[in-house]
Amino acid sequence: MTSISNRLQDILATIQLAKLANHRAQSVNLLAVSKAQSALAIREAYAAGQKLFGENYLQEALDKQSQLADLAIEWHFIGPIQSNKTQLIAQHFNWVHSINRLKIAQRLNDARPETLAPLQVCIQVNISNEESKSGVTQQELETLASAISKLPRLKLRGLMAIPEPSNDNNKQRIQFKQVRECYDALLEKGFTLDTLSIGMSDDYRIAIEEGATIVRIGSALFGARK
Q1: Fewest Cβ atoms nearer than 10 Å: which of 30, 153, 172, 187?
Q2: pTM score > 0.70 for this model?
């Protein structure tokens, strides 16, 4: 049976190969998506060198953080955010990838403790305009980015997207390219960004070729969720 450590090394090797196909790529970080995974599995990945972990569900994440408090993990919140969860998210995470409303950003800003560094955040873009997905439209993006940039306890780092699933590599590439074009448009407007959080287990190589700086990988690292 393939271990988490072996799968991690295979993924890191694939990331390096994908970077060769993108002349813009300088660094690509692997975010291990650990939702529904045990604290023991996270420990195994950490011992193999993985330090960034992403969680979708707040209470599950808090339970694991308590069990893993002895590890120097960088915790990323990547799931939908309800207003009543913003205080705990602001207090217990280093990053949030899924901001899609100014109200949520303001609540995170207000709840971020002064004793911690500003919360690193990404705006989630609904690039495929799916009703079932969170995220702002391309038309709303600049207004939200401008408002978040004025919040002192948040640091806007870039964009996140979850394109519509597809077995068509060309369709996935087009969607990733659209997210990158949104990112580039903000750079041209003067926003200081460095993060494009796109690509998951089935398509992360294409995402890197199209500009991803963070790929969010769960099943390819931990195995299929039970």
Answers
A1: 187
A2: yes
H/E/C letters for each residue in 10-68? Answer: HHHHHHHHHHCCCCCCCCCEEEEECCCCCHHHHHHHHHCCCCEEEECCHHHHHHHHHHC
- What is the total count of domains within the chain? 1
Amino acid letter, residue 166: S
- Closest Cα partner for 180 from 139, 156, 210? 210
Model confidence pLDDT, tens digit, residues 38-90: 999 999 999 999 999 999 999 999 999 999 999 999 999 999 999 999 999 99
Give the domain extent around 128. 4-222
| Tokens read off for 141 | 């993006």
Q: What is the CATH number of the domain that holds 105?
A: 3.20.20.10
State which H helix or E strand residue 107 sits in: helix 102-111
Residue in the structure block whose two tokens are 């709303």: 140
- Neighbour-count burial for 11-49, b at 16+ CB within 10 Å, e otherwise: beebbeebbeebeebeebbbbbbbbebeeebbbbbbebe
